[in-house]
Amino acid sequence: MKFFCTLLFLFIYNICQGYQNDILDKSLKKDTSTVNALNIKGYQNRLTDPEQTILTAKKSAKIANLINYYEGLAESYRVIGIGFYYLNQRDSALNYYQKALELFKSKKNEIGETKVSNNIGNLWAEIDYDKALEYYEKTLVIARKRNIKELIAGSYLNIGNAYYRKKNYSVALNNYEKSSQLFNEINNPIGITQSLQNRGVIYFSTNQYDKAEKLLLEANEKAKIHELNSSVASINLNLTSIYIAKNNFLKAEQYLQEGKAFAKLVSDDKRIYDYTYTNYELEFKKKNYEKALIYLKEVHDQDSIFYKRNITSNINLIQQTLKQQQLQKESELTIEQQKNAKKLSIATAIVAILAFFVIFLLVKTNKKSKNSNDKLKVLNEEVSRQKDNVDKINHRLEELIAERTKDLIIKNQKLSEYSSHLSHQIRGPVATLKGLMLLIEDDMVDSNEITPQIVKCVNKIDEQIMDINEALNDPTRYHLNKNN
To answer: Rg for the chain (alpha carbons), in Å?
Structure first.
């Protein structure tokens, strides 16, 4: 019973745990979606209300930080930096861009890094054109590699801005036209508006007022439709200058007042300063010298304040950049040290493994050598034993050879004696027998008389042969003669 109760409890627990995980996953997805939505909203507000951009992105950053959504947090920092950029607070913008860059790098998000690089280029656009171009061109390379049309178009736009400031209008116009084509392809209203405005500025700078007016009026209309307040303020400033150049003071006044209102709406101090100076130009062109003088004095006062603020901002930007570069170098040094430490650890591990392998081989070789030695010892013992056996056999063979040699010597001696014996002992009876046979043949004697002599000779020969045979087969006899 207890067993079944335990199983039931585990089953219910797993269901509840799974349900809880589903809720957490859905909640997390919802939170990340919220972060992304807030970042998009903040970015879209950059031209209408940059202060709202900062507030929205900070809210997004807070949520992203709570749920450890670091890529969302990096984008939040980037959008906050953009907000400060449009408020002309470049040192604050750079600070947030660097935070974003570090997070994007830690997550190996190349697109995020590229966007931040583009934003940092914008900070340098009014200080160091070549430095700004470095950032823009780097962005363009990666944007092309990844085929991100919006980023490619933005890069062309920014590169055009850099060449415009360098007064290389033909190159600037070429880049603006490329950006305009891409922004129209992807139907990006902000990009389309900025491209129209920038092309209009190029034509104004080259005294082609009609072309400039047409493009800027179209840009003004689109900016108002999409509530791009900062763009309206900037476009109207250019339109005012065109109408002043064309002596159309009524329209110049109209666009000046409208643009100044939009500049105040987005708290763009630099643009407000530009409008004050344009007011002076308008009154001077209208020959209202008294009003022109008032505006000139106001320009002088604003110029002093704005110049100081701009210098301070530039110094802060440079200091912040140097500080960030130093931190980056220290970070790179730390990373390099970590890489070296890692390499050292890997090398140490490899050496340890090799040492272990060598020790293993040595132990194995030693063991093998010991086994070989044991086998050799056994073989040596066997060889020694076999040698002893061979020595014994050799000794026995030597004894046998000695015995055989002795026997052969005796037999040779007996054979020699046999030969001699044959020559002396048997030859005599044979000769006698032969003589007797001759006497018989010649009938010199009677056969009856000679028969006993023949028998005696034959017996003598037989006795000698028997004696010789016995002597040869008797090893105890060394001579044929019994007396010897």
So the answer is: 63
Residue pair 287/250 in contact by the 8 Å Cβ criterion: no
Q: Is the Cβ–Cβ distance between 155 and 185 less than 8 Å?
A: no
CA dist 394 and 276 (Å) reads: 134
Do 390 and 284 belong together in one domain?
no
Distance separating alpha carbons of residues 24 and 323, to the nearest angstrom: 41
Judge if 415 and 319 occupy the same domain: no
- CA 302, distance to chain mean position in Å, is 57
Q: Are residues 294 and 386 in the same domain?
A: no
- For residue 286, pLDDT beyond 80: yes
Residues 281, 242 contacting (CB under 8 angstroms): no
Q: Cα–chain-centroid distance for residue 240?
A: 58
Predicted structure pTM score:
0.55
Residue 440 has pLDDT above 80, yes or no: no
Give 459 or 411, the one with higher predicted confidence. Answer: 459
Contact between 238 and 216 (Cβ < 8 Å): yes
Q: What is the CATH number of the domain that holds 255?
A: 1.25.40.10
90 is a domain residue: no
Residue ranges making up the domain that contains 216:
188-328
What is the Cα–Cα distance from 185 to 190, expressed in whole angstroms?
13
Comparing 465 with 252, which gets the higher pLDDT? 252
Is residue 446 classed as helix, strand or coil in its secondary structure? coil
Mean pLDDT of 98-104: 91
Residue type, 142: I
Question: Is 136 part of a structural domain of the chain?
Answer: no
Whether 429 shows a pLDDT value over 90: the answer reads no
pLDDT digits (tens, 9 = 90+) for 136-166: 998 999 899 989 899 899 999 999 999 998 8
**Coil/strand/helix, residue 342:** helix
Residue 119 near residue 81 (C-beta atoms within 8 A): yes
In a domain, 217, yes or no: yes
Task: Give CA separation, 265 vs 50, 56, 61, 83, 240, in Å.
Answer: 10, 18, 26, 15, 18
What one-character DSSP code corresponds to residue 261? H
Q: Helix, strand, coil % (nearest 5) of the chain?
A: 90, 0, 10
